[in-house]
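Figure 2 data, in text form.
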Amino acid sequence: MSDPVSELSMDLPIDLPITRLDAASTDFRARLAELLAFNDATDSAVQNAVSEILAGVRARGDAAVLEYTARFDRLNAPDMAALELTQADLQAALTKLPLRLEQALRQAAERVRIYHEKQRQESWTYTEPDGTVLGQQVTALDRVGLYVPGGKAAYPSSVLMNAIPAKVAGVKELIMVVPTPDGVRNDLVLAAAAVAGVDRVFCIGGAQAVAALAYGTETIPQVDKIVGPGNAYVAEAKRRVFGIVGIDMIAGPSEILVICDGKTDPDWIAMDLFSQAEHDELAQSILICPDAAFLDAVRASINKLLPTMPRREVIATSIGNRAGLILCRDLDEAAEIANIIAPEHLELSVADPDAMLPLIRHAGAIFMGRNTCEALGDYCAGPNHVLPTSRTARFSSPLGVYDFQKRSSLIHVSDAGAKTLGEIASALAYGEGLQAHARSAEYRMGR
């Protein structure tokens, strides 16, 4: 992969190479596929390391977690108790925040909580004429593990987005793991845990933290599901333990697709594209517009604004390698292309986003109108920012309360129902050659 910034001086005029596609060209679908292609194969060294760590924690519990924490995070602890933070520690981190930051954290948390309360599912039943009762019982998971990255990738907003839906769902115990390399804690992340209602926090990370949550140790109880983002080692560990516990998803690089009618300030659009590109070099930012001159204007804005960005090297690599400017015939065609891409974030920066909405089938989150930048959804609008990536929005949904609830079917058969249903079940069971099934039903019929 090329490096657009290897020799780039920010004191010189910028002219980033950006892929340009025309939906009218005969090779458009092939070129779009090339633009979207992403190699998510896990490096064999990562696989081998994760295998060792998972086996070690499964066999030796706390001792292995302590060893790996000392090796990878340079944090030597005498026992697991030294790696667990108290609720007082979390509250202390909250009190250290500047007032405006604490207020913003609480305001964002409240908005996220209000939105997710709308998602809570309730149990239900109905009674048939013969007295048979059928229904569904909804229960929360007992215990959930939340992985939070440490270091530069520590995002308190991710704590809110993962923890609050779990607590709204009724999860009894939420255990957060967060690495603290060299013993350095991130007060903002811990403050977010306090605001979100996290029950226990351990200063551990990497595949060893995932293993501890999945298998349980002498100190850390086994959870039912693990959520939260992480590096390649964390992602591989989550992939391996799925089936022993549930997981939210294996997330790929962040994505944004903007559909614009050419009437929005091009600087706004350029900055929206930057908002994903600054996450990492593999993030993807795409603009679709029926106005070729507007695509040129946005490209000019990208080159103009890039030198002003603190993370300009990351942005330049992402834009240069994975961004796309796509010319379409009209907004209907833009919607068709969007459904092919199935983006994590989709902005409809058009005059009438409500008219476009019925055309959109596949997107993690849809941001409607010129004022609705994706960044608002990341932090405080209310909907979850944990979204399907890598075209999985074709069949996946944002993280929500429903990810922390499960459903059990309810069947309470009356005397009359036993006869009616027994006839049906008996006939089908004999048809399948399962005599015990048939006779079990027939006993209830008095045969």
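Caption note: The two ends are 73 Å apart (CA to CA).
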